[in-house]
Specification:
The chain has 208 residues and is of the alpha+beta class. The chain contains two helices and 13 strands, in the order H-E-E-E-E-E-E-E-E-E-E-E-H-E-E. Strands 2, 3, 4, 9, 12 and 13 form a six-stranded mixed β-sheet that branches. The chain has a five-stranded mixed β-sheet with strand order 1-11-10-6-7, with no helix packed on it. Strand 3 and strand 4 form a beta hairpin. The longest helix has 25 residues. It comes from Nocardioides anomalus.
């Protein structure tokens, strides 16, 4: 009787150890963290299950001029890649917190705090929301950039298993060479319920 109990205890302990080993090695609780990418190009709406995302314009800039005329223009460390989007939530109001660029090497570029263009945006159901995003990108990373946008966070991993727009900005290597030499300045915009058109401006030199 005692031998039977010991045998049962040994079998149970072995089963628990094997279960722990399998769980540790395979991590059965782990979920794929990659979002589902939906590809598109500039001027082409990307249909997600919760929104339509469209890049309506993309341009390079060396300067972004604040709406407050008393402030100095912000100058890019590399090149400001200015992206204008149109987003329409299709089911219910949504917040779009994850907006970033990715280059052909997989490097991620977040929104530029210096440029202070649009930050996290929100869209009401069936009402288009327009935004101007600014990213400070090294001159050597311009070719092949893509915009990725989703209703997650660019700090915490909340895009897990969700759909994400992945828009090819159409920047060729020849374009990248031209963009690297830009001296263009655009007026700062954030987000709006009306279409945003990029306004190229002429900067006035300030005497020191």
């Amino acid at each position: 009787m005692i031998g039977g109990r010991l045998t049962g205890a040994v079998v149970l302990a072995a089963s628990l150890w094997v279960g722990h080993l399998v769980t540790s090695e395979l991590d059965i609780n782990e979920v794929n963290t990659d979002p589902f990418l939906r590809s598109g190009t500039v001027g082409e709406p990307v249909h997600l299950d919760y929104a339509d995302v469209e890049v309506t314009d993309v341009e390079p800039a060396q300067y972004i001029a604040p709406t407050d005329k008393t402030e100095l223009a912000r100058i890019a460390g590399g090149v400001f890649v200015v992206v204008v989007t149109k987003v329409t939530a299709t089911r219910e109001a949504e917040s779009f917190l994850d907006v970033h660029l990715v280059d052909d090497r997989g490097r991620v570029f977040l929104r530029s705090a210096k440029a202070d263009c649009a930050g996290p945006t929100g869209a009401k159901a069936a009402v288009p929301d327009y935004a101007m995003f600014c990213f400070d990108v090294p001159k050597t990373a311009l070719a092949g950039l893509r915009l990725r946008m989703a209703r997650g966070s660019d700090i915490y991993d909340t895009t897990r298993g969700d759909a994400m727009a992945d828009v090819d900005l159409g920047i060729s290597r020849a374009d990248a060479e031209d963009w690297a030499e830009t001296t263009t300045a655009y007026g700062q915009e954030k987000d709006s319920d009306r279409p945003i058109e990029l306004q190229e401006i002429t900067l006035t030199q300030v005497d020191s």
